[in-house]
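Fresh eyes needed here. Have a critical look at this protein's tokenised backbone.
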Amino acid sequence: HICDMLAQLGDKSAVGPMRQLISRVVNVGARSARPKRSDNLALGDADIPTSIVYGAVIRAFGQLGDRGTIDLVERAASDFDPYVRTQALDALKSIDPIGEEMRSRMVVRDALSDPRDTVVRAACQLAIQYHDTDAVPLLRTLAEIRPELAAAANEALRRLGH
């Protein structure tokens, strides 16, 4: 709640302390090295509190729109927890709204093969938002190999003019 409140207040001076919070509480490297999960963490999982903190900070970064946080947001997009990955893609929409950063476009393209359907749908929307025609081959493959996501992939292809 504190992260959300600071973001709603637009307090960009909170970015530094929130970065410190992540470095103290979240082992980002170890989390990124774990395989991406398609399912939410099970009730009682010891990683839930850390995921909540990590997701809240990433969400706040997105609400603040501070481009100086893009490195942490992009790193969160490779977290093992789909909740954190979803927060990261949502944050990218605000921090890099037109996909100026090549790294942001690469994160979106990587997310098109995510095991979690909601993450892939968010990536499809970001590919549209970024007008990322380089994502077209990935979207075509997605439509072919994951029928449950074909509608989202085909909509992205249509909106990208393919």
Observations:
- Residues 48-64 form the longest helix (17 residues).
